[in-house]
Design a protein that fits this description.
This protein has 614 residues and is an alpha+beta fold. The protein has a domain at 7-14 and 29-47 and 56-213 and 255-307 and 426-613: Glutamine Phosphoribosylpyrophosphate, subunit 1, domain 1, CATH 3.60.20. Strands 1, 3, 4, 5, 10, 13, 14 and 22 form an eight-stranded mixed β-sheet that branches. A seven-stranded antiparallel β-sheet has the order 2-21-20-16-15-12-11. A three-stranded mixed β-sheet has the order 17-18-19. The longest helix has 21 residues, at 352-372.
């Protein structure tokens, strides 16, 4: 039975309590980080509001491990949700000490670089969407190709196929783009921070964690173990993460003194403490020793860029997301605008009919993404066309009501379009002034290229594989992309990161979303958004619900294990869909607002995440 639309905003973001949900979860594949902070001006309350009664979600398969009625964390004043409990606590303390959502997000991101090194980083990049004092902002601190990289850097002659199946774009020194995280976090703090917290103050918690150390939990040890083979290939990585040849032991105190020194330089000198001087010397020396391409001039010229956000409407709600060189906002908008033409709210949640239309919208949006998008400083992105009503109408005209469209009918299929790489990390922050931040940061695969900068204590990214290293051939995520995303000197590789903020019809932030997981970021964020806006699911139910992913090539729908009932699956197979199961799809913690409270949903699929409010 459906709840009325008017009741959704006030009653459906919450579960039945105020304590964070325990997060037992199966072992997860590698991931990247995303940070999110949401800006809605919450009304002042003299007494703590009472969360409304839980509304159970229909359509969850029997035995599904993540319950629809789980309780979120709640708070009147602010909320922080990350993939690492220690980082969440750093962000919350920054809010309590008078910092705004951006101050807390910057502090959280640097803390993640220490306590969640597989995805949090100094050696990678990311994107931030923020709403501060009611105004939207988007910040691009994506990595860039080194100046010595070119169109054919990763092509093996004479075949034109990716070298070693793309190996050097995914592992080792050649795989790394010029890092953008430090420049981006500096820009965020300088432009949007509260001015109550200095740059040094927002870095202080991370410096303390690196220098004094922290107690290692089982998730930290397990993640190193899952990536030990790659890390063992590089001496500085082996020394840091595999002392005595084994992963850092659970229960031990882990320190990173070299990283603490680097962070102190950044605290003292801002970006110059990273892109120039001793840290730049160490990074350039590491590149030279392993045959990488990043030089000191590459580091010195790096700049983060403010860009106009992607803004679109879905079911009367305003969505603010990231523009190119992230494909996230454009692809979310394409999916949404195709589906605006169907009355999905009348369908039961995850019914075969609803999923059919969702899969077809995802298919068409990804085909356009892969063919047409790239770094806007290098290619003309047809964003206006792709976000036009005419484009969405034309796509719907090719969708059959009862049959899947084979991708080959819409786009020639590459023969080697397999692949499903690991991913990133995402976090969200909101404050009592209603400011919000959604931030995704990444070194691409978990532990990036596997290379730690000797003497500096941080890992480098393997983002070069996010380019179409050989246009028309699949990358590590199975994405088959075109010339607009080909490698070029100083170019930013196309991304799927989708930090997003939803503003309700009342003008207040209602959702802060983002995810980790390569191209599954986009589909996970859409499914959470649609769960709330189409079906009135609670925040926890929308986060915990089964996830699905369709990206056109390969022509298969990826589903979470046990995410479909036999009836659903057989019905969809009869329409022509083929399915591939995996352990879990994406990490997508979220924040919502309703009834005078912030609600925070940690990702139940990944151990170690935490939502905290106050």
């Amino acid at each position: 039975m459906k709840t009325s639309r008017a009741a959704l905003v006030l009653t459906l973001l919450f579960g039945c309590g105020t304590a964070p949900t325990p997060v037992p979860a199966p072992p997860a594949p590698p991931t990247t980080t995303t940070a999110t902070a949401s800006a809605a001006a919450p009304p002042t309350a003299s007494a703590a509001p009472t969360p409304p009664p839980v509304v159970l979600a229909p359509g969850f398969p029997a035995g599904w491990p993540y319950p629809a009625d789980a309780a979120p964390a709640t708070g009147q004043h602010g909320m922080v949700v990350t993939d690492a409990a220690l980082a969440t606590k750093v962000g919350l303390e920054m809010l309590k000490a008078g910092g705004n959502a951006v101050d807390a997000a910057v502090a959280t991101a640097f803390a993640l670089a220490v306590v969640y090194p597989g995805a949090g980083n100094l050696g990678g990049g990311g994107f931030m969407v923020a709403r501060v004092d009611g105004a939207p902002h988007s910040l691009d601190f994506r990595e860039t190709a080194p100046s010595k990289a070119g169109h054919d850097t990763f092509a093996a002659k004479p075949t034109g196929k990716p070298d070693d199946k793309g190996g050097t774009a995914r592992l080792g020194h050649l795989a790394s783009g010029v890092p953008g995280s430090v420049a981006g976090l500096w820009e965020a703090h300088q432009k949007l921070g509260s001015k109550k917290k200095t740059w040094a103050e927002v870095l202080a918690p991370a410096i303390k964690l690196a220098s004094e150390g922290f107690i290692v939990d089982a998730e930290f040890t397990a993640s190193i173990g899952q990536n030990a083979e790659r890390l063992s290939k590089y001496p500085a990585s082996a020394k840091l993460f595999l002392p005595d040849g084994k992963p850092v032991a659970t229960g031990s105190t882990w320190k990173n003194a070299e990283l603490a020194v680097v962070l102190k330089r950044i605290a003292d000198k801002g970006p110059k403490g990273f892109y120039e001087g001793p840290t730049a010397d160490l990074l350039a020396a590491e590149m030279k020793s392993g045959g990488g391409l990043i030089t000191k001039p590459d580091l010195a010229r790096y700049k983060a860029k403010w860009r106009a956000p992607i803004e679109f409407s879905y079911r009367g709600n305003k969505v603010v997301s990231m523009p190119p060189p992230s494909s996230g906002g454009v692809t979310l908008a394409m999916i949404s605008q195709i589906l605006e033409g169907y009355d999905l709210p009348k369908e039961s949640f995850h019914s075969p009919a609803e999923l059919h239309y969702i899969f077809e919208a995802m298919r068409r949006a990804f085909i356009a993404r892969n063919e047409k998008l790239g770094d806007p400083d290098f290619v003309k992105n047809p964003v206006e066309e792709l976000l036009s009503p005419a484009w969405a109408t034309a796509q719907r005209a090719t969708i059959k009501d009862d049959k899947a469209t084979p991708t080959v009918e819409l786009q020639p299929v590459a023969k080697d379009s397999g692949g499903a790489g690991p991913h990133t990390t995402n976090f969200s922050v909101v404050d009592e002034q209603g400011n919000a931040v959604a931030l995704t940061t990444t070194i691409n695969w978990f532990y990036g290229s596997g290379v730690t900068v000797a003497g500096a204590g941080f890992l480098l990214n393997n983002e070069m594989d996010d380019f179409a290293t050989v246009p028309g051939k699949a990358n590590g995520y199975g994405l088959v992309q075109g010339e607009p995303n080909a490698v070029a000197p100083n170019k930013r590789m196309l991304s799927s990161m989708s930090p997003s903020i939803v503003v309700g019809k009342d003008g207040h932030v209602s959702l802060v979303l983002g995810a980790a997981g390569g191209p599954t970021i986009i589909t996970a964020v859409f499914l959470e958004l649609a769960g709330v806006l189409d079906h009135g699911l609670s925040l926890m139910a929308a986060t915990n619900a089964p996830r699905f992913h369709e990206q056109g090539q390969p022509d298969v729908v990826t589903i979470e294990k046990d995410g479909l009932t036999d009836v659903q699956r057989k019905s969809l197979e009869a329409m022509g869909y083929t399915f591939k199961e995996r352990g879990h799809i994406a990490d997508a913690p979220s924040i919502g607002w309703a009834n005078g409270l912030w609600a925070g949903a940690a990702e139940p699929r990944r151990n170690g995440g935490l939502a905290l409010g106050y």
